[in-house]
Amino acid sequence: xxxxxxxxxxxxxxxxxxxxxxxxxxxxxxxxxxxxxxxxxxxxxxxxxxxxxxxxxxxxxxxxxxxxxxxxxxxxxxxxxxxxxxxxxxxxxxxxxxxxxxxxxxxxxxxxxxxxxxxxxxxxxxxxxxxxxxxxxxxxxxxxxxxxxxxxxxxxxxxxxxxxxxxxxxxxxxxxxxxxxxxxxxxxxxxxxxxxxxxxxxxxxxxxxxxxxxxxxxxxxxxxxxxxxxxxxxxxxxxxxxxxxxxxxxxxxxxxxxxxxxxxxxxxxxxxxxxxxxxxxxxxxxxxxxx
Length: 291
Fold this sequence. Notes:
By secondary structure, the protein is an alpha/beta fold. Helix content is 30%, strand content 15%. The mean pLDDT is 86.
């Protein structure tokens, strides 16, 4: 491996110059901060940032994406690519996955007390990023991927969301906590930087940049009541989309799911839930969506 050291603001970074560096951009607080820092010289500069648009993004997220594109043009930011190969909203309404075959469920709540196995993250986020990388590099269908670093905006208070890459051509990099993980599961310390979520809020304020909303699909079950209530009060169209999806997935027996399922943990239809405004901690995300 061709490893070199780079010193930025007193922090020594160990970088592999031979690997393409890709920011997985969710347009949430952490991944967007990572994008700004890398663009502005506070972190090593990535090659590209890829936003995997699921087709079910919140209106506030899409609005911030437009802001970020303008910022990129005016500030020589890292090039941003938007992957729109799949549409989770349409597929859920059609009760199929992106290829028109099996149902790709969201991690909804079941009457039996369980949560459905997540398939949406892999299919509508990770695979979209991979396809865009292939398009950017102009790789033919059967050409192997070159070694790439995929950068994620994970902070110290969410270290549980760190994971090793499944594909052998990837290295997962977490610049905000100074770690990378190779496909063999080995952790590598790449810097001494350690940041928490609160540090990022302060960073946005210090640099006079607007703070994005929490990034997730409008109907994502991994949302606190506070987030649901914010959506209901401020983005009524988004909330109605969530209600529609909640109704559509209720009876999924044709897809092998015997119990009724719901997007809210109360196991009540979303439109009838009385949200608790003080309930704001609910996060079981694997780390690829809400960034």
